[in-house]
Amino acid sequence: MNCFNVNLTRKGFRFNILMKLMKKNLFILIVFIILSIVSSRSYSITLDEAVKRAIDVSYPIKEQKETVKRTEFSYISSIDPFLPTVTIQTGYTNYLYGAPITYTSGFAPLVKNEFYNATGAISYRLFDGGLRYAQRQGSFSLMGREKEKLQGIRSDVLYNVRAAFFTALGKRAVVEKRNEAYETTKKLYDLTKARFTEGIVRKSDVLQAEVRVTSSKIEVVDAVTDYEKSMEDLKSLLLITPDEKHDVEGVLEAPQFQESYQSLTEKAIRTRPDVTYQLKEIDRLTSVYKEKKSNWWPKLDVGLQQSRQDTTFFPNGREDTVMLNFSYPLFDGVGRYYNMEGAQKDVNAAKYKLEEIKRNVKLDIIKAYKDLTLSLENIRMYDELLREATMNFNQAVGEYKAGKGDILTLIQAEKDWAKAKENLVVSMYKSNNALAYLQKVSYLDGN
After folding, report:
1. What is the pLDDT of residues 41-89, one digit of tens each?
2. CB-based contact 319:119 (threshold 8 Å)
3. CA separation (Å) from 301 to 124, 326, 430?
4. Of 221, 228, 216, 214, nearest to 172 (Cα)?
5. Distance separating alpha carbons of residues 227 and 344, to the nearest angstrom
6. Across the chain, which distance is largest between two alpha carbons, in Å?
7. Which of 280, 330, 344, 349 is the most exposed place for a label (fewest CB within 10 A)?
8. What is the mean pLDDT of residues 345-359?
9. Alpha helix segments (H runs only) across 78-110
10. At 92, phi and psi to the nearest 5?
């Protein structure tokens, strides 16, 4: 009986130890399972794959492509006024109560109340003061304007997906760094408990270390949530449903960029979509001005018409006519003048808007360039800070083990070390986002 009690006690002791170990490592196990599920059951997305898919599935791009197609059709149809016009017309008339029509056949008159007619005509405008050409040029400029808008939308999509990708990549790295910090706090906690068991430190030191472990655990949970939210942003841009498991694949490192601000500005002013869009708009408004101006010129048309009228279904009576029409409104009010002047003002306003766009282009680039420069400098400074924090933490651990340091100093050193690692990661993904924005405002993808 006593033997049985001893065995039972030993088994219970082992069970209690096992339960404590399980509780102790439960959080690590949960995080490990989450990361394992994400990595094993999810599809990895590289930056190139994300960009390609975003271009393929983007609704704004698809919408603008349809608009471009419509303007292309409009431009094709603008050739019609340069082509001759051919019309045919046929009809049947029966006079029920009106005067009949008399035809002479031989010596006897024929009285008929019905007859058939057919008319064919071909006409062509010889001169219209440049109206047709101006309308066609306006259609061409409108088509070019919408194509430039498509490029601008494409540039926005590229920036959005790149920023979302690097943000998700950075958030994942933050999760890894906070997990490392959590593991470190666990080791410090175990060290403090061991020293407390030996009677070297006080109970308050153990409690301080335990508080730091809990705080680090909360930070890991927050980081995991932020990472999941950033992945949802990326999946939304790629039209991936939330229930699909995806992960980002890539190496987070400092971006490399050597081009100068001056060269970026020169290229952007020549090629950026909003600049070229406005240039096409100026061309379109100039064509509108030429349309208004054409009203001051006469119109000259030539035509050939054949008419047939008889009492048979296929009329034999034929009449051929050649027409040359000259028209010019001597007076039709003051609209011609003021419409032309108004169109000219539209052109002038569009030119001023172009200069304002160029000014904003220069401002956007210099600000983005400075942001990128600052972010690269932040990487350098945080890298230096991490080296210093690592040395400080190692020194604090050594002093604490030797009994010369206190737990608060050690915890603060660990916090600074963990924060330095996290800040370095954050500065890297923000630097990549800054480069993506500089690529957008400089239109490097188009160049």
Report:
1. 568 899 999 999 999 999 999 999 999 999 999 999 999 999 999 999 9
2. no
3. 6, 7, 67
4. 228
5. 55
6. 152
7. 330
8. 97
9. none
10. -135, 135
Residue 438 to residue 447: CA distance in whole angstroms: 13
Q: Could you give the CA distance from residue 200 to residue 57 in angstroms, rounded to a whole number? A: 64
Measuring CA to CA, how many Å separate 56 from each of 233, 273, 327? 17, 20, 53
Look up tokens 């059709």; give the residue. Answer: 73
Helices (H), 26-130: 26-41, 47-57, 59-77
What mean pLDDT, rounded, does the chain reach?
87
- For 262-287, write each residue's pLDDT tens digit: 999 999 999 999 999 999 999 999 99
Q: Are the beta carbons of 312 and 145 closer than 8 angstroms?
A: no
Q: Give the pair of three-digit tokens for residue 165.
A: 């990708």
Helix (H) or strand (E) holding 320: strand 318-327
The string of pLDDT tens digits covering residues 385-441 is 999 999 999 999 999 888 888 899 999 999 999 999 999 999 999 999 999 999 999
407 vs 363: CA distance, rounded Å:
51
Token output for 331: 């007076």
pLDDT of 115 reads 77
Per the CB < 8 A criterion, the answer to whether 267 and 443 are in contact is: yes
End-to-end CA distance of the chain: 89
Rounded-to-integer distance, Cα 445 and Cα 155, Å: 8
Listed residue (25, 141, 154) closest to 78, CA to CA: 141
**DSSP string of 155-194?**
HHHHHHHHHHHHHHHHHHHHHHHHHHHHHHHHHHHHHHHH
